[in-house]
């Protein structure tokens, strides 16, 4: 599935409406039977920018609500974005971000929860919040998870801007391309790799990886052993083993 952030007049800044629309898609992918047919989600921005961060108009609207006596207007706005990025992080599908132009604030956060991030070499990354007198409240924890505390501290506390090549050295992204053609080629290669992996095995593996550090190791390994036993006995496991022995692609990769 391909999803485009499509507010080019604002460099695809993340409005509350956009957040809610993404949540609708994510909820469908998580909970609807049809969502089980989707193996990868590609998130990209329109007209050469990924996402320039939060929408200033929504901030102004929340300020007006606060002035009218609603003390939780800013909290609700900010936390709704956090709910969206948390949902994106735990999607069972493989989440791919294609990062061009502005990758700021909330856009940076989405990059940090993607399973595979592919960046243009001249993309511009950064957390500009502290320079605006606010904080990257819902984003910073995911940045720390992505690149580690030391690097995250510098980026968040200095407002450092950097390009796609530096994002690769930091571990924010996995691939860098220096032309639109190369970017599309790398995306096609990643999608080809995903097609060669068994759909259910990928989903279970992603959940296993996400649970590291969030539950006791012995408990996690016990559950992983049970998942492994189930996978071996499953239709996927049997087909994968048979395909290996017969030196052919498994059924889920037959369209390669």
TrEMBL record:
Gene3D superfamilies hit by this protein: 2-enoyl-CoA Hydratase, Chain A, domain 1, Lyase 2-enoyl-coa Hydratase, Chain A, domain 2
Family: Belongs to the enoyl-CoA hydratase/isomerase family.
The name this protein goes by in its record: Enoyl-CoA hydratase
């Amino acid at each position: 599935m391909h999803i485009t952030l499509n507010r080019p007049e604002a460099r695809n800044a993340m409005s509350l409406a956009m957040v809610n629309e993404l949540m609708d898609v994510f909820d469908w992918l998580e909970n609807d039977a049809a969502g089980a047919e989707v193996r990868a989600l590609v998130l990209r921005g329109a007209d050469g920018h990924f996402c320039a961060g939060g929408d200033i108009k929504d901030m102004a609207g929340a300020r007006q609500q606060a002035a009218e006596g609603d003390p939780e207007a800013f909290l609700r706005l900010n936390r709704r974005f956090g709910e969206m990025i948390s949902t994106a992080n735990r999607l069972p599908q493989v989440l791919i971000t294609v990062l061009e132009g502005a990758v700021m604030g909330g856009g940076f956060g989405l990059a940090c929860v993607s399973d595979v991030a592919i960046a243009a070499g001249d993309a511009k990354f950064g957390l500009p919040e502290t320079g605006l007198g606010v904080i990257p409240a819902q984003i910073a924890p995911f940045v720390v998870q992505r690149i580690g505390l030391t690097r995250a501290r510098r980026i968040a506390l200095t407002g450092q801007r950097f390009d796609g090549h530096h994002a690769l050295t930091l571990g924010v992204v996995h691939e860098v391309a220096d032309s639109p053609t190369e970017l599309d080629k790398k995306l096609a290669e990643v999608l080809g790799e995903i097609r060669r992996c068994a759909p259910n095995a990928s989903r279970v593996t992603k959940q296993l990886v996400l649970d590291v550090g969030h539950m006791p190791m012995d408990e996690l390994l016990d559950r992983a052993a049970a998942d492994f036993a189930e996978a071996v006995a499953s239709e996927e496991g049997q087909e994968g083993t048979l395909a290996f022995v017969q030196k052919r692609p498994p059924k889920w990769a037959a369209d390669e």
